[in-house]
Design a protein that fits this description.
alpha+beta; 2 strands
């Protein structure tokens, strides 16, 4: 349970990795707002809402969730690759 988990804005703002935050348009409005605030607090976060999805979106919208995660991982890995330099 995350009820006792209360990270500070500074701690969230210090996260240096790309983060994907997904919510569903049919999720509880409080959960949607919490996810939005989380994404706003993390500098490199991307916030996505899946239309019609709710809490168990990994079962009801598996293809959409999987596609978002796959795209996120590919982009995150590409951003971490060292720049190739041309030999002089």
């Amino acid at each position: 349970s995350a009820y006792a988990f209360a990270p500070s804005a500074a701690a969230l703002g210090a996260i240096e990795i790309p983060v994907l935050v997904i919510t569903g348009s049919a999720s509880n409005p409080l959960a949607q707002r919490a996810n939005a605030l989380l994404a706003e607090s993390i500098n490199r976060a991307k916030f996505v809402t899946i239309e019609g999805a709710a809490h168990f979106m990994i079962a009801t919208h598996a293809a959409e969730v999987g596609g978002l995660i796959a795209t996120h991982v590919v982009k995150a890995e590409a951003a971490c690759e060292p720049a190739h330099s041309t030999p002089a």
